[in-house]
Amino acid sequence: MAGVGIRYYEVARALAGHGLQVTLVAPFGSELPRTASPHLENLRFDTFVTFEDEKLVALARKHTCFFAYPDVIWRCRRWIDELDTYVIVDGYDITLFEQLELHAASHQPIGELVQNHLTSLRYVLQRGDFFVTATERQRDFWLGLLTAAGRIDEELYRGDASLRALVDLLPYGVPDEPPMHTRKVLRGVVAGIDEADFIVLWGGGAWQWLDPLTLVRAAALIAQTRSDVKFFFPGVSHPSPDLVGAMPIQQELIALSEQLGLLNKVVFFGKWAEYEDWQNFLVESDCGVSLHRDHLEARFAARTRIMSYLWANLPMVLTEGDELAEQLSGLGLARLVPQSNAEAVASAILELAQAKKRTRIDASALKKQFSWKAVTRAFADRCKAACNMKRKHKRQEFHRSTMHGLPPSLRMPQPSTPIAKILYPVLRALMLWYVEALLDQQHQINTSLLARLAEQESRLAEQESRLAEQESRLAEQESRLAEQESRLATQSSVLREAELLMTDLIEQTTLAAME
After folding, report:
1. Which range, of 89-98, 329-338, 458-467, averages the lowest pLDDT?
2. What is the rounded distance in angstroms from the CA atom of residue 94 to the CA atom of residue 114?
3. What is the pTM of this model?
4. What is the CATH number of the domain that holds 54?
5. Which residues, 6 or more positions from 22, have their beta carbon under 8 angstroms from its beta carbon?
6. How far apart are CA 231 and CA 193, in angstroms?
7. Where do runs of H (alpha helix) occur along 370-514?
8. 366 neighbors 331 (Cβ within 8 angstroms)
9. Are residues 265 and 354 in the same domain?
C-alpha cells in the first residue's frame, strides 16, 4: 500500500477499535495485509469493480457515514445524492497541486485539468456534510474553498465560531505498536550494503512533486569522503501502476545515479515493500530523508513518509517549508535544509553519520499524540453522532449569499457635501434594492430550473411507464398469437387424423364392394 491505502486501512482499524461497525472498501484485487488484526469483528473488508457497482451502492445504503476522497465522492455522484448518508470528505491529499507539478514536467496543457478539478470540487463542497484534513494549513485551504462555495452562513457561525463542526483535523497517524525487526532486508542482504554501513532511507515513491535528485547529488558529495554511507530507495514507482502511472522523474533519478557512478554502489533501488515488511526497512535504517521543491503541493502536503520515520524514531533530514517538518525541527527531531541544496543535505547527513553508534531520536510523546487510536478518537465520536444528524445541504438547495448589505468592495464613500448627504441614502437604497433584486432574480431562475428538471424527470418517468405498459401489451399479444398457433396446430393434427380415417374407410368400402 502507498500512503492513501495505509491511511484508510489504519483509520478503519482504529474506528473499529472505537466500537463502530466499519466496512473498508477498496478496488477489486485488493487484499488486507497478512498481519491484519483478526479480533476486530466489527471491521469488514470488501472490494468493488467500478464506482457504479451495485455492491458499493448497497454498502453505502447500509451505513450511516460515507468517508472517502473528494475524487471518489465525485465519481459516485450519480447514486450518492439519492442516499441520506452522512458524507465525510477526506481533504488530506490535495491532488490538484500534485497534478499541476506532473503536467508541468511533461509540458502538457493544464487548463482542462484545472477545470475538471474545479468542477468536481464544486460538487464535493456542496455535497459534503463534514470535512477533515491532516494539518491546520490544509484546514485553512478547505475553509477558504467552503467560504467561496457559500457554506459559511450565520446559523453555522453562531453555533460554532471555530467552524470545527464543518472542518476538523484527522491527522496522518502512526501505529500504536512499535516497529519490530522480523527479518533482515538491507544489511548483508542487498549486495553492496554491509552491516556497519550508515543507511539513508528515502521512505516512499519518487513522485514528480518531490526532489530525490538533490539527494542523489548529495550522495555523490558524501561518496568523495566516505564509503560507508549508503542510500536506499525501497520503491520508485507506485505499487499500483494501473492507478498511478510512471512519472518522468523516476527515470531521471535512475539515470542520474548511473551517470554519477553511484548506481548499486552508493545508491540502491528496491521493490515496493509490503506493509507488514515496511517496519524492517525502517528499523535497519539510520536516517530518513524527505525533500521537495518550492511549490503549492509542498506548502499544503502532509508527508506520510515523515510519519514513518517518526514511528521508527529515525533522525530526519527534511526540506524546510513543510508544516510537519517545521514542527519536528522545533522539537529537535529533524534537521531542516534549504530547497534543492545538495551541499546542505550532504552536510546534515554527514553530521548524523559522525556518531560512532547508531542514533535514534526520542519521539515517544509525539508518537503517543499521533497514534492512530488518538487521532481518530474525535473522528469516531463525530461518526457516532452522525446518525442523529440531518443533512442541511441537500442537492436541491442553492446556497444564497449570507452577507447583509453590500460587500466592502461595493460600499459607497461617505458623503462630504450637503447635496451628497441628501442623495446618499437614496442612492444607497437604490443600490441595495438593485443587488437584492438580482439575488432574488437568480434565486427564481434557479428555482425555475429545478422545477423544469423535476417536470422533465416526471415526464421521463411517465414515458417509461407508458413504454413498460406497451411492452406488457406486446407480450400479451405475443402470448395470444402463440396460443392461437398452438390451437391451429392441434386442429391441423385432428384434420390429418380425420383424413386418414376417411381414407381407411374408403378403402374398406371399396374392398367390400369388390367382394
Report:
1. 458-467
2. 12
3. 0.72
4. 3.40.50.2000
5. 12, 15, 16, 42, 43, 44
6. 9
7. 372-375, 377-386, 418-514
8. yes
9. yes
